[in-house]
């Protein structure tokens, strides 16, 4: 049986859980408390040297990076087909996995420029620096420090908002005349971007696609799938979502309109 090391509200963990649930694959949960720094524990770093979630274990095989994990899960699925049979369409589906990497960086930015910074702001400057020092990736630590210190005033936010607006417009264009990103059937392509759309919505940025009908209808269809409820329901509580929405709307109030013409 597969074991997934994950965190309830982690975007990349949501992405991996969605693949597992859509693949109808049995899996065991190993939840990591990111707030407590469990991702930096020596035992976990031996599995994932980057100190991030998720990590997938399949016997003696270890996989990190959510894009790799979802491709693997979809590839070994036996109960359903999540990768198009046609090689060209399969390649196009995987293309959305690559596009998702840009979306990941942007969503990470808007998350930590709003709700995600609050926990660290409660710590003393010395405690914050201790946290950053634990992060294995110095560039990620520098980015986190900037977003926590500056919030939406960080110059990184403008680029992130432009990236997200471009992505949702491209999704809307791709969906013309089709229900799912790779065609008639739900696939790896939809899984690759769904969690990032979800986090954007959670921090009050759904107006980035409110003028895009294909995108809006696709998102409603995806959220109505039974696997989506199993992906988020047991792991993300309503009180947390309410706080994320409140802080996101406060942080980005009046900002989104600047990007709708892009």
TrEMBL record:
<feature type="domain" description="GST C-terminal">
    <location>
        <begin position="86"/>
        <end position="252"/>
    </location>
</feature>
<dbReference type="Pfam" id="PF00043">
    <property type="entry name" value="GST_C"/>
</dbReference>
<protein>
    <recommendedName>
        <fullName>Glutathione S-transferase</fullName>
    </recommendedName>
</protein>
<dbReference type="Pfam" id="PF02798">
    <property type="entry name" value="GST_N"/>
</dbReference>
<keyword id="KW-0614">Plasmid</keyword>
<dbReference type="InterPro" id="IPR004046">
    <property type="entry name" value="GST_C"/>
</dbReference>
<dbReference type="InterPro" id="IPR004045">
    <property type="entry name" value="Glutathione_S-Trfase_N"/>
</dbReference>
<dbReference type="InterPro" id="IPR010987">
    <property type="entry name" value="Glutathione-S-Trfase_C-like"/>
</dbReference>
<dbReference type="InterPro" id="IPR040079">
    <property type="entry name" value="Glutathione_S-Trfase"/>
</dbReference>
<comment type="similarity">
    <text>Belongs to the GST superfamily.</text>
</comment>
<dbReference type="InterPro" id="IPR036249">
    <property type="entry name" value="Thioredoxin-like_sf"/>
</dbReference>
<dbReference type="InterPro" id="IPR036282">
    <property type="entry name" value="Glutathione-S-Trfase_C_sf"/>
</dbReference>
<feature type="domain" description="GST N-terminal">
    <location>
        <begin position="1"/>
        <end position="81"/>
    </location>
</feature>
